[in-house]
Design brief:
alpha+beta; Beta-Lactamase; globular
């Protein structure tokens, strides 16, 4: 029988909690979104005082990371190198802060973070990934 590894809600909450702890440690207000392997929102947390637009941006970063199976920073880097056509890819968000969540080489979902500078979003996202 086929057994698929899935990201549980408890996993999503653990990843988000670690990301939030990193954000709080630095005094950064962000939104943390966790999406499943299909890019569907599983868990979203918006810290008090964070701009509302970051809710959609964080989710989009997470969706980009899982659907393209790479960090959003990789897309950002290609755009910064002059390949601006990448910005036209459907669903591609070329801003750091989205990372796939994997276990034993299997893509389970992704985390997306938005609210501060993109490199800071990336720091927070990496803290979340480390908790998985």
């Amino acid at each position: 029988m086929f057994q698929q590894t899935l990201l549980s809600v408890e996993d999503a909450k653990r990843v988000a909690a670690a990301a939030r702890a990193e954000a709080e440690k630095n005094g950064w207000l962000v939104v943390i979104a966790i999406v499943d392997e299909g890019g569907h929102l599983m868990y979203l947390e918006r810290m008090d005082g964070c701009q509302k637009a970051s809710s959609r941006i964080a989710e989009a970063k997470g969706r980009t990371a899982i659907l393209f199976k790479r960090p959003t920073k990789a897309i950002e880097d290609v755009v910064l190198e002059g390949r601006t056509v990448m910005m036209g890819l459907p669903g591609a968000v070329p801003l750091e802060g989205g990372l796939p969540l994997t276990k034993d080489g299997t893509f389970l979902g992704a985390i997306g973070v938005s609210g501060v500078q993109s490199f800071q979003d990336g720091i927070i996202a990496r803290a979340g990934v480390a908790a998985l």
